[in-house]
Design brief:
The protein is mainly α. About 65% of the residues lie in helices and about 0% in strands.
Length: about 425
């Protein structure tokens, strides 16, 4: 290694002394090792806990301050290797660093630099990555750490160089190909997901992503599910998604609902609803929560409505069921409306206001009398202005002569706001027009 490169490397290496990112740059800053030892010692004493808190916070602040130095050193080190005509040697060092850091989590700056190297030296990248993978053995994690995607995403999203975008999309297709490694497929899917804001032929990627739903790697299956709906997916693709509701991985199952909703678009209820119901009865609460959050009222049936209403009585899911499912249903059955009316009485306006908003549309003719009765009972007692505004909007859609007396009292009351009086008068005008 030349003296020039060695000095650059030394800047990088010092950041890893003492088993973490060390100070190294400012002599007046204390050693992190000593600071940690002092903090641990002081934390054992009741009288010195405040001192321990100060020292622990100092550790955090020093680490955060050195993060910028660390990132700058990484970039300067790779530039030194490049200028010295030894990019491959620098890349090996970068991969080795990524491998060492992997147990503590990936580092975005390393990802960015590896991505840049990959675009500039694609053959060297593949050769070195394979060498290091072989040297590390079958349990090596370097492949995961060494396939960042930020540079490729940037190349696809940029608009000034169409040829660079095409070249980058071809490279992305290679990452998603069947012969690619698991790490490359993960990177490819992450890149694809991040690049979807750019304009390109999505359909050409559908045939590459569909087979990944059957990957042995659960992360690949999960990421493939998140990408598929945006790739000109068709209703036929539901047959590939639905079996994953029984996947062994909770993370995969949690991604199924969103894919079903996005691809089904409210249709094909006979196949989509049973899969959603299975997910809503999953033993993992994260799966249930993710499924509820994906729904937005796209699917309903008597049995499905009953399941959602039952879940809404569980405190764990109550709020998100009201917000994402019951209130958003395009067609609200009598049982759904009755449940939303119950929620009007709850003190948390986030729930009662959302329930009232939900009653402003989609109420079936069968449910309208019950909704009118529920709103007439709730309105005089409601103190939250937002919820009350939504209740008046809902009442306008269901009001009959039964509401006239209350509306007349509101329209003529000096105790009401001008906005509320106007809302009541509008409904009265509607009733007059029906006579």
């Amino acid at each position: 290694m030349s003296l020039h490169v060695a000095r650059c490397a030394a800047v990088f290496v010092v950041l890893f002394s003492c088993g973490t990112i060390a100070v190294g740059a400012d002599q007046d800053e204390p050693s992190l090792k000593k600071l940690l030892e002092d903090a641990k010692r002081h934390a054992q004493s009741v009288d010195q806990r405040e001192q321990a808190i100060t020292e622990y916070r100092a550790l955090v602040e020093i680490h955060l301050a050195n993060e910028a130095r660390f990132q700058a050193a990484l970039g300067e080190l790779m530039a030194c290797y490049e200028v010295a005509g030894k990019p491959a040697e620098g890349f090996r060092y970068l991969l080795d660093t990524a491998y060492k850091m992997e147990p503590r989590g990936r580092h975005e700056r390393i990802q960015e630099l590896v991505g840049q190297f990959r675009l500039k030296h694609p053959e060297e990248f593949r050769k070195i990555a394979e060498e290091m993978k072989a040297a590390a053995g079958p349990k090596a994690r370097v492949a995961d750490a060494a396939v960042p995607t930020s540079a490729l995403v940037e190349a696809i999203q940029q608009r000034k160089d169409p040829s660079l975008r095409d070249k980058s999309l071809d490279h992305l297709r290679k990452l998603l190909a069947s012969e690619s490694s698991t790490a490359e497929k993960r990177a490819g899917l992450a890149t694809l997901r991040a690049a979807l804001t750019a304009k390109f032929d999505r359909g050409s990627f559908r045939s590459l992503v569909l087979p990944l739903l059957k990957s042995e790697d659960d992360k690949v299956r999960e990421m493939a599910l998140s990408c598929l709906p945006a790739l000109d997916a068709t209703p036929d693709d539901l047959a590939h998604v639905i079996p994953l509701a029984d996947d062994a991985s909770p993370a995969v199952r949690a991604a199924v609902g969103g894919a079903l909703i996005a691809i089904g678009k409210g249709d094909h209820a006979d196949t989509v609803i049973p899969a959603l119901a299975k997910l809503l009865e999953d033993s993992e609460s994260d799966v249930v929560t993710a499924t509820i959050r994906s729904m937005w009222g796209q699917y309903f049936s008597p049995e499905f409505d009953a399941l959602l209403i039952e879940l809404s009585r569980d405190p764990k899911y109550h709020g998100i069921i009201v917000y994402h499912a019951l209130s958003t249903m395009r067609t609200k059955s009598l049982p759904v409306c009755q449940r939303l009316i119950e929620v009007l009485d709850e003190p948390d306006w986030n729930d009662s206001g959302r329930a009232a908003w939900g009653l402003t549309y989609g109420v079936t003719d069968e449910a309208k009398p019950a909704v009118e009765d529920g709103l007439l009972a709730a309105l005089p007692e409601e103190a939250n202005q937002y919820t009350r505004d939504q209740e008046f909007r809902a009442l306008r859609g269901v009001a009959t002569e039964k509401s006239r007396a209350y509306l007349t009292s509101v329209a003529g009351s000096e105790m009401e706001t001008e906005k509320t009086r106007e809302a009541a008068q509008q409904i009265l005008n509607d009733l007059d027009g029906k006579r």
